[in-house]
């Protein structure tokens, strides 16, 4: 008698794959890997977003939190092109999206933030804001 694991059936029902990916009603639910680095005067957040176009990526810094959202529709046809009267033999469409938010470790100047996207990696640079408890800048007297 071949017994199955009931948890495998539950995961299959919920749409999870054996390799840790999630699928729900034809929509891929994915997260993106990020790195957060702190330098003397800025925070830098790097996010892996392979296969997206710049126009499909939205980056927002609000209330000490950075949110990165990317969405795309992918479409693939199995039949070869050439005949204008042909009907679809197979055509697959899917919607992919990812959203990742991270609390920033300090105050930033959102207006001076910048983002670049190269080779599937989004890099967001957020200049640090001056501390409110800052006693000012000491000026040497000559």
Automatic annotation (TrEMBL):
Region span, Disordered: 71-100
PROSITE patterns (alphabetical): SHSP
Pfam families according to UniProt: HSP20
Positions of the SHSP domain: 25-142
Domain of life from the UniProt record: Archaea
InterPro entries according to UniProt: A-crystallin/Hsp20_dom, HSP20-like_chaperone, Small_HSP
Record's compositionally biased regions (Basic and acidic residues): 71-87
Gene3D superfamilies tied to this protein: 2.60.40.790
Family: Belongs to the small heat shock protein (HSP20) family.
Record's protein name: Heat-shock protein Hsp20
Organism from which the protein derives: Halorubrum saccharovorum
């Amino acid at each position: 008698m071949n017994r199955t694991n009931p948890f495998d059936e539950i995961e299959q029902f919920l749409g999870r794959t054996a390799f840790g990916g999630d699928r729900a009603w034809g929509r891929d639910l994915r997260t993106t890997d990020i790195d957060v680095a702190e330098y003397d005067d800025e925070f830098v957040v790097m996010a892996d977003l392979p296969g997206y176009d710049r126009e499909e990526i939205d980056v927002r810094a609000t209330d000490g939190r950075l949110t990165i959202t990317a969405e795309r529709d992918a479409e693939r046809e199995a039949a070869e092109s050439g005949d204008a009267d042909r009907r679809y033999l197979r055509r697959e469409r899917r919607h992919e999206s990812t959203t990742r938010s991270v609390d920033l470790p300090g105050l930033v100047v959102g207006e001076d933030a910048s983002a670049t996207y190269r080779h599937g990696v989004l890099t967001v640079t957020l200049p640090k804001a001056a501390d409110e408890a800052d006693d000012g800048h000491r000026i040497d007297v000559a």
